Here is the input.
Amino acid sequence: MDPRLAELRALIARHKWNDHLFARLGLVCTMIAVLMLFAAILDLFLDGYQRLDGTFLTSYPSRHPERAGILSSWVGSAVVMLVTMVSAVPLGVGAAIYLEEYADKNWLTNLIELNVTNLAGVPSIIYGLLALGLFVHMLGLGETILSAGLALALMILPMIIVATRESLRAVPVHIREAAYALGATRWRMISDHLLPYSMGGIMTGVIIGMARAIGETTPLITIGALTFIAFLPPPPITAEPPFLSVDWLMSPFTVLPIQMFNWISRPESAFHVNAAAAGVVLMIMTLLMNGFAIYLRYQIRKKIKW
Here is the structure.
């Protein structure tokens, strides 16, 4: 046998063995991570399942642990996430479309792209300080739901921009060329072709950003979120014309992570059980929010034919 051929076969066999070994090692690492995560979730559930009932969800916080609930905190988390999503998603997608499809490639856009990429890794406390100075003091929005939603929107904005740009770049260039060949304007090409084809990736960025935002505590504490609140924001729908109210945006608030921090910092073990139960509710809210976004992404992808 030709020595060179034998050497080549030995090299190929060695590479296959290395690939096989790396695959097994990756599987072991994945299983260890999954088991650790499952153990942590199971421990949290076992600690807090005894408080998971309707009373816990419909009661206000109390200094008596057996009567304390999370009504104001889960409602606060829901409305803050609503403001965050409404603020961050249109702004992030619009900025990504401009940077990717309209902006000239020069030193200014390169600087903007560099800053957007770096901002995705900035600690959350920086966004809290920025929101405190800009929204609470400079714009006079106060320590309100609106300030909290805008602070979290600033935090997840770079993630949405980066994910949207990568999704737009992933669309094959022949789709753009075909749209232009049929006489479409740039905006028609973007709205009718690029956005539908890239919506799956955009939704992935939104899911990641919202999942991070719902568990954040530091920016909200920085802008003055309450640790104890025994009332709900005003309802957005009223019985009098114009039947819609925005007063809830200017209401004080608390969220589930802050309520959990308040309880876990107390010495009584009963409050620790409440914190564990609130953690389970927070995970359920995150799963429901992400599940809805994943369902929308699946429906969008199912309608697209490449």
Q: What stands out?
A: The chain has a mean pLDDT of 86. The domain at 59-303 is CATH 1.10.3720.10 (MetI-like fold). Residues 3-48 form the longest helix (46 residues).
